[in-house]
Amino acid sequence: MAANIISGTEVAKAIREELKVEVAELTEKHGIVPGLVTILVGEDPASQSYVAAKNKSAHALGIHSEQVTLDVDTPEADLLALVEKYNNDPKINGILVQLPLPKHINEANVLYAINPDKDVDGFHPVNVGKMVLGEQCFLPCTPHGILELLVRSGVETSGAEVVVVGRSNIVGKPIANLMLQKREAGNATVTLCHTRTKDMAAHCRRADILIAAVGVPKMITADMVKDGVAVIDVGVNRIGMSSTGKAILAGDVDFEGVKEKASCITPVPGGVGPMTITMLMKNTVQAAKMAANLI
Ligand code: GUN
């Protein structure tokens, strides 16, 4: 079976068109310009390119965006003070602190300092708790993007066997939780595999929907999946440099092999990545509407 390639680039573009209309309406009817600040500490090239892409996307939608880059040695107290400044800035609806942070900064201290009403990453414990309870909140952007990809690609999740590989706070834990809830793109039977899982391949072979978020290039191979599986590849692994100096990326899934057995599969790049940024924009618009009591 040749798989249907799920283009996150195309789905994200369609959602951004919807958001553009929503932002224009907010601005024209209500005088509201949603605002996002991204804060980057240090010069990690991957983080720099993610943050640049987030600001570019905001700008294209008519969202006000500010970008702050701090020296890698910035003390934690200074970063906390900056977060507090933006907590109190009415022009800013969403605050994003790019992860990972340098080792001397306690990530939890910073994430917990963000006002939950401006936590467009959905990483604050208040939003994580609400998500687990199935209440209205900011959903973390990558899992939110995966749900949208599944819905818009017509993948049936109700009653499906979903296997998630990877237990990170950003992807594995939240997507596993969301997909077992009574909600759109939910009602699945979910297995969460991790580094201590015995016989990972046996679990993966049961999956109707396989979500790989481990950060190991091409770890999921064709012999580990069943015919007709829907595959979502969250991995973005830099495996080399092209002759033009661009990073060569690989997912967590051996795309060439697995696509011969899958019913549908996301590519890397052009799969989950563009969705993550777009869901950040969606959360920023949601934050602006909440601040104006419009939802
Ligand atoms: N680093 C990698 N992914 C993310 C993300 O979704 N949000 C933030 N803030 N940092 C990240």
Strand content: 15-25%
Main sheet summary: 6 strands, parallel
> How many helices in DSSP terms?
10
Whole-number radius of gyration? 19 Å
Strand order of the largest sheet: 1-11-8-7-5-6
Give an overview of the whole structure.
Homodimer. This protein has about 300 residues and is α/β, with parallel strands linked by helices. It contains ten helices and eleven strands. It folds into two domains: about 90 residues, Leucine Dehydrogenase, chain A, domain 1 (Rossmann fold); about 130 residues, NAD(P)-binding Rossmann-like Domain (Rossmann fold, 3-Layer(aba) Sandwich), CATH 3.40.50.720. Helix 1 runs parallel beside helix 10. The longest helix is centred in the N-terminal third of the chain and has 23 residues. The radius of gyration is 19 Å and the shape is globular. The N and C termini lie far apart (about 45 Å). Bound molecules: guanine. Guanine binds next to strand 4 and helix 6.
Produce a short descriptive summary.
With 295 residues, the protein is an alpha/beta fold.
